[in-house]
């Protein structure tokens, strides 16, 4: 979970402004207004020979934001309602994450990381250094940008300076993301995401480059929107291929939002 959490931080960095001031999580989540909490429930319904199969409930996610729009708490619950994990976050004066801590369902601390940033003269993040709960250096991300200020790639190195992975961002002339690629330490593609106006493709590979999972998802349809303009129901259709088999599913996302 820690590596996934750190990867999320990296995904949000390209959308940050060039002013050493982070965008809020509300914007990264596509939320508007003074949002306080977000409840996200996802249901997958398989399509078998054109008929609906039994629905599958995915883990419930609960998010809490402060008044500045930063995500300060996230909970993941099993389908039966029991707590799976809790993530707490802290921020510095400029809105960048300074600390992240994860607790399991029993309340036991599983990991804690602190973050330190280095910026260039234009306010862009050059390096993100990550430390463990004891203050020991864990790993460092090194970012590069194009002439327009958009991130082109990020290389992650462990405490010994060895490259563990590299992220590559391909964009159009306006900065819109065309493709995201993640390479492992051997330069093998282990993840690729290709968005488009009509559908998105997500590929996950094993360390040797063989396919683990591919998902082709049609553009979601916003069915319900609240008075603030935030969608509360989203429906999409996907084809998921894994273990040599393909499955067509309908995914329904429900969001319950409270405001300050």
Short précis:
The protein is mainly β and 260 residues long. It contains 2 helices and 19 strands. Helices cover 6% and strands 59% of the residues.
Describe this structure in words.
It is a single chain. The chain is mostly beta strands and about 260 residues long. The protein has one domain. It contains 2 helices and 19 strands. Strands 1-4-5-6-7-8-9-10-11-12-13-14-15-16-18-19 form a 16-stranded antiparallel barrel. It is globular and about 55 Å long.
> Could you give the count of β-strands?
19
Query: Helix- and strand-based class?
Result: mainly beta
Low-confidence stretches: 14-18
Distance between the termini: 30 Å
Task: Report mean pLDDT, rounded to a whole number.
Answer: 90
Order of helices and strands: HHEEEEEEEEEEEEEEEEEEE
Radius of gyration in whole Å, from Cα? 19 Å
Tell me the domain tally: 1
What order do the strands of the largest sheet run in, or round the barrel if closed?
A: 1-4-5-6-7-8-9-10-11-12-13-14-15-16-18-19
Number of contiguous helices: 2
Largest sheet: 16 strands, antiparallel, barrel
Gross geometry: globular
Helicity range: under 10%
Q: What percentage of amino acids are in beta strands?
A: over 45%
């Amino acid at each position: 979970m820690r590596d996934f959490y750190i990867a999320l931080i990296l995904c949000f960095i390209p959308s940050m402004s060039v002013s050493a001031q982070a965008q809020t999580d509300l914007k990264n989540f596509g939320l508007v207004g003074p949002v306080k909490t977000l409840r996200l429930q996802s249901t997958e319904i398989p399509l078998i020979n054109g008929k609906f199969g039994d629905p599958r409930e995915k883990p419930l996610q609960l998010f809490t934001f402060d008044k500045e729009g930063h995500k300060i708490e996230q909970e993941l619950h099993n389908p039966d309602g029991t707590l799976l994990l809790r993530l707490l976050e802290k921020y510095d004066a400029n809105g960048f994450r300074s600390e992240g801590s994860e607790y399991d369902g029993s309340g036991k601390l599983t990991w804690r990381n602190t973050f330190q940033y280095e910026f260039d003269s234009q306010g862009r993040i050059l390096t993100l250094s990550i430390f463990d709960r004891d203050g020991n250096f864990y790993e460092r991300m090194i970012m590069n940008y194009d002439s327009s200020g958009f991130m082109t790639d990020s290389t992650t190195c462990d405490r010994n300076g060895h490259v563990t992975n590299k992220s590559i961002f391909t964009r159009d002339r306006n900065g819109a993301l065309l493709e995201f690629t993640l390479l492992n330490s051997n330069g093998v593609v282990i993840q690729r995401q290709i968005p488009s106006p009509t559908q998105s493709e997500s590929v996950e590979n094993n360390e040797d480059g063989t396919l683990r999972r591919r998902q082709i998802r049609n553009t979601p349809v916003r069915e319900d929107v609240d008075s603030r303009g935030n969608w509360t129901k989203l429906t999409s259709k996907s084809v998921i291929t894994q273990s040599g088999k393909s499955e067509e599913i309908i995914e329904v996302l429900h969001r319950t939002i409270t405001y300050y």
